[in-house]
Each structure stands twice: as C-alpha cells, then as structure tokens.
Amino acid sequence: MKVVDFLEEESAQYEVTQHRPTFTAQQMAAEEHVPGMFVAKPVVVRADSTYYLCVLPACCKIDLDALRVQLGVARVELAEESELAKLFPDCALGAEPPFGALYGLETIMDASLQEDEYIVFQAGTHEQALKMDVSEYRRLAEPKVLSFSYHCR
User: Fold this and answer.
1) What pLDDT, on a 0 to 100 scale, did the predictor assign at position 77?
2) For the residues of the chain, what is the DSSP string, one character each?
3) Which domain holds residue 128?
4) Does any domain span residue 152?
5) What is the pLDDT at residue 151?
6) How many domains does the chain have?
7) Domain of 71: which CATH number?
8) Looking at the domain assignment, is residue 149 inside a domain?
C-alpha cells in the first residue's frame, strides 16, 4: 500500500490494526471501538474542475455549500465511484486514506478534527486501520483546515 510506504519513509508514528471488513467509516468506528468523531472519513469532491480530498469525522457529512463558499468556486459535487477508482488505483473502493498529496490531490481537513487527540482511518483496504495523533497527521498531510461538516444522526 502506498500510504504505509509513505508513513515509513516519513518516520511517522502510527499503529496498525486488523479488523473484520468494514465498508463505511461508522462501521470501522464500531469495529475499532472508537467514537465516530475520531475516525477520519475521506470524501473526494470536485470543485469546478479540481478534485479535493476532504477529511471529516465519520459521524458527519459535508456541507457542500459551505465548502463551495470557502473554496471560492461556483460548484462543488461529490466525486463518482468511477472517478475514485481512477484517482486511487492502489486502494479498495471506499477505503481511501486521508492523504491527498499521495494521489495528486489537495487535502482539506474539517476544523472539528483539530480537537481530537488522535484519528483512525483506513489504509487502502477494508480490513486494516491506522491510528495516529492528529498533530502527526497534520505534519504529514499538511491539510488546509476549513469548517465544512455537520453532525448527522
């Protein structure tokens, strides 16, 4: 996996866990026994003609209008699954890691994740999770921090 190689090259501090296959960020939160606010869910959007990797808590959804305004673009849409397969060729669909730069995308992190001590995220498969301190994640991902999510129930 590209992400693990990247983490090793950067001498990153992280933990790896194996779990039963999960297909949503909330399922992974349950499987890993962590609150949804600590699971980083990557969501790819197309803003006008540019793709961005947005990272938000598993228990939240993107406010596309808020993101559109903050990016200063005319239109923001969720990327299609066919686009994700092309953008993340080494990842299982829906198991993309939250490091956009590895795939030529700018990473945008929701401000609510800054409050977390750590985050948990998928590493390109549906059976493996990585855990790292938020400060370490920010060092490695160098995300732009915006406020673009709302809590869903």
Assistant:
1) 97
2) -HHHHHHHHTT---EEEE-S---SHHHHHHHHT--GGGBEEEEEEEETTEEEEEEEETTEEE-HHHHHHHHT-S-EEEPPHHHHHHH-TTS-TT---S-GGGGT-EEEEEGGGGG-SEEEEE-SSSSEEEEEEHHHHHHHH--EEE--EEE--
3) 2-141
4) no
5) 87
6) 1
7) 3.90.960.10
8) no
Sequence-distant (6+) residues with CB within 8 A of 46 are 52, 76, 77, 78, 79, 83
Is 24 within the bounds of a domain?
A: yes
What pLDDT, on the 0 to 100 scale, is given for residue 153?
66
Whether 151 is covered by a domain: the verdict is no
What length is written for the chain? 153
pTM over 0.90: yes
The amino acid present at 146, given as its one-letter code, is: L
Q: What is the mean pLDDT of each run of 10 residues along the chain (153 residues)?
A: 88 94 90 93 96 96 97 97 94 93 97 94 92 97 97 78
Question: What pLDDT is attached to residue 115?
Answer: 86
